[in-house]
Structures are given as structure tokens and as C-alpha cells.
Amino acid sequence: MRIGIALNPNPPFVSAPGDGRNRGRRRRRRDLLALALISITVLLGAGCGVVGGHFWLGVRAPVVHLSRTAAHSNEVLSTATRPIRPLAFSSSWLASHPPPDLGIAATEGIEVDLDSGRVLWERAPDVQRAPASLTKMVTAMVALDLASMGTEVTVSALAAQEPPDLMGLSAGEVVSVRDLMYGMFLDSGNDAAEALADGLVMHDRFIALMNAKARAMGLLDLRFMNPTGLDQPGHQASAYDLAVIAASLVTYYPELLPIADTRQISIPATASHKAYQAYSLDKMLWSYPGAVGLKTGFTDAAGGCVASLAVRGKRRILAVVMNSDVFFTDAGKLLDYGFSTPA
Q1: What ranges do the domains of the chain cover?
Q2: What is the C-alpha to C-alpha distance for residues 325 and 134, in angstroms, rounded to an integer?
Q3: What are the catalytic residues?
């Protein structure tokens, strides 16, 4: 179940009246959960910025810096998450413009024009399945709800032992949230994701905040069981869910975009941690013109996954591919098609 809430007369991402799937969504808006979401959704003034040479819409909202001691106390945390409004995409254009056979291997996926909110291509977009490391987009957002980029996190022994994709952390190192973001987006480091989940609040609390973030985005069917995306019963999301998550990251967490757009980085050693060399696993950054991230993933249950964003001029196209043996090839085909459609 999804809920999209429009807070201005003509916002992007809002469902079109003629969309049959969205008629069901509008009916579901009337339930109590929708009312609860409305009651807690607060929209701050919109801001804007230039990130990595591209123009992004965003929201200026305070980021609360929590000390590790306060975060691990037994007191109830009054966590100040960034206010966001649920985003929704319209399939009405797709209904009248069926795409050609693009030869896509993925079993699930979706492509969206982020500026118009139009769905340009989709395949089983509502099927819930393992999302692999695309989960880490939400991990990153929740971490920034809790702390600033400069916050230092002590790496737990459990985080340092988390397999298989690694930043290379060692137990007891003290690493900034920013550097952990590089390790999480480039190396897809499960150790970095677990370090954030263990180091900012209690681990269970962090997972609860991830699921609360999903509900705030209007995503009612997905469920996160861990911050890494490793296969676990009940850990699931759909291609549509992940497109909403990616669009929310772009819109409300623009400081993550330069990190997701980084091909490689050298993080020098400090008195509290060793040096790191991070290389992006996202081949789209190296090969596709205009690609700016966002996240790759692979597990046995999920197969190959990618949320790929590309920018050409003022146009932004997002492709989400799930369960594909050739997920970069699939993403490239979808992006090519997306940019070939009228703006």
C-alpha cells in the first residue's frame, strides 16, 4: 500500500486523476493511517542548491547532533527527523505511451521522470522482494536525521565483523559519519552501515527509525529488518518503493548526492582510524553519460539491483532495476529510453 499526499496545487510526483492504480491509492488515503501521516507530516520551506554541478530541489531543516552517550541512554529519544512529504508517481502517461520492447532482463523495475513525476516504464513495480543494498539509501537518510556529517562514530565489534562487502573498518576505530557514508555508497560496506546503526542509537531503535521513515514516505508495505540489505526473512521492498525512496533522497537529502556521485576517494588516516581507499561499485558512474549514482546491490535472494539516476541538462531520469543478471545494462537501456521521451 502506498499513500501520496499533495501539499500544493501542482506538485511534482502527484498522481494523475486518470490513473486507475492511483484511484485505489486515493481511496486508501482516507484510512486512519493516512490521517496519522498527515498529522505528523510537516513541510518546511523549500530550499535549493547546486550539488556537483547539478540543480537539486531540497528542504532546509535542522539536523540534530546526538552524542553517542545520549543516544545510548535508556531515556526515550525525541528524534527530530527531517520533515518530508510522501511522493507519488503517475502511470497515466505510460498508459497512453506503451514503451517498445527494450530487452530488459530484470524481473521487476520502474523508470520515472523525476521532474514531471511520470512513470516511463515499469515491470511488476509493486512486487515485494529482497532489495539488497538499495536498503542503504534509507540507512543514510536515518543517519542524517540523527547526526551531522561531522559526527564521530565508534565502530563496534559486531559492525567490524559484518560480511561480505566491507569498507574495512576495525573495532574501536572512530570514524566520521561522512566517511562512513563514502564507505556505504562506494564500497557498499555493510560494516559502515552497521557502524551507523550501532553508533548513533541502539541498533533496534535505528531499525525502527528506518521503518518509521518508510511510513513517513507513504510506503506501507515494505519492511526493513537490518541496515545493510543482507537477506533476512521479512526484509522487502518493491521497485516502486525504492523509486520513492530514491526520489526522497534526491529531494530532501541533497548532501548525499556528491557522495553517491563519487567514483573513488582516498580517506587519509587520523589518530583514530587508518586510511581507506574507496572505489564505487556503480559502473554507471564510469560508463554512462550523465550518471550521478545512486546505489547498487546484490544478494542471492535479490539478484542484481541498481537505483540509477542520470542528469542531462535540466532533466533527471531515475531507473530502478531488481533481480537482473545484467542490471547495469538494463539501467543503461532504460535511461536511454527515458531521455528519448518528450520532457
Answers
A1: 87-340
A2: 16
A3: 133, 136, 188
